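Supplementary notes (optional reading)

For those who missed the lab, this is the record we used. Protein: Glucose 1-dehydrogenase. Length: 260 residues.
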Amino acid sequence: MGRVDGRVAIITGSTYGIGEAIARVLAKEGALSIITGRSREEGRKVVEAINSAGGRSEYYPLDVTDEKRIEEVSKAVYEKYGRIDILVNNAGVAGPNKPTHEYARAEWEWVFDVNVTGAFLCTKYVVPYMQRQKSGNIVYISSIYGIIGAPDLPAYHATKAANRVMAKIDALLYAKDNIRVNSVHPGFIWTPLVDNFLQEQCNKSGLSCEELKKQLDAKHPIGHIGEPDDIAYGVLYLVSDEAKFVTGSELIIDGGYTAT
């Protein structure tokens, strides 16, 4: 018996990276994973991989900046399955890596539209269904940089801080409805986002990407950066009955990076 048997989980931005890993792990533990994202091709590949491994999943095209589409997907999932048990607000973009004063307003607002307003809209349209069934779990995928600062990616870090507090607000608002809300704060995880970041740093520094990766590994007390499954299993815990007394909490998964 899986840890989330029979539950219906919507995971935004789940066509690759951390979102894909979350969808795969939840399906492995008995949930129906609703894969969402903008790439139909990638979404269908994830569904095929999950279903061929014995799990259950479906793909719904979704851009989290499209409010009408979020409403449609939420309604379609609820009407088809009669419940939505889990929402993982994972979709996000890094935005330009330059100092705050060099940002154009449109660049800043784009990052907030995806990372903050997108998460708000998904929560807005899913919560009423959870209230009907008197249960639910919401997880905001934030970042260690929603807790600490760093001299790069200012819009991204600001949005991750917003996600952290959004989870706490929602935890307090919806506790009476038996809806638990928590945030997860990944450190450096080997995803396309981190790969792109390293490539950018390689170009700037003139060092090889392999050398920079070794330097990044060394900054972690555990000796290496993480993998998407490290985050996925943290999410699994939070949405399982094992975490029935956990709400409004922050789960930091960073190999000890922020403990130094």
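If you only remember one thing from this example: Residues 105-133 form the longest helix (29 residues).
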